[in-house]
Design brief:
mainly alpha
Length: 107
């Protein structure tokens, strides 16, 4: 992802944050502070939709944020960590092979 695309995503993340704050505020939901037993069928459906909308807003913001974080990390750090893990795996495999070779030489 190039810098321009990353900047666009960051701008979108900021807008989504504002929408997420609005959507998750119960005061903005249909029938806020009205007891459930007093709600009509339509109000119950609309209130449920408001809660689902809030959850969707949070999930979308988290996905965009995760994408930005993934592409903002310096590539060299990721490569160094992967290389270190690869080296450890190779060292373990080499130790195993040396033990097997040593065992075969003893017999």
């Amino acid at each position: 992802m190039n810098i321009k695309q990353l900047k666009k995503l960051q701008s979108l993340r900021n807008k989504l944050f504002e929408a997420m704050v609005f959507d998750t505020n119960p005061e903005n939901w249909v029938a806020y502070a009205k007891p459930a037993k007093e709600l009509s069928k339509q109000e119950k459906d609309e209130a449920a939709w408001c809660r689902r909308q809030a959850a969707s807003s949070i999930a979308l913001w988290e996905k965009i944020d995760k994408l930005i974080v993934q592409h903002s990390e310096p590539k060299s750090t990721i490569n160094i960590e992967n290389t270190q893990l690869d080296l450890l795996a190779v060292e373990e495999e080499a130790k195993t092979l040396l033990v097997q070779i040593g065992a075969n030489n003893d017999s």
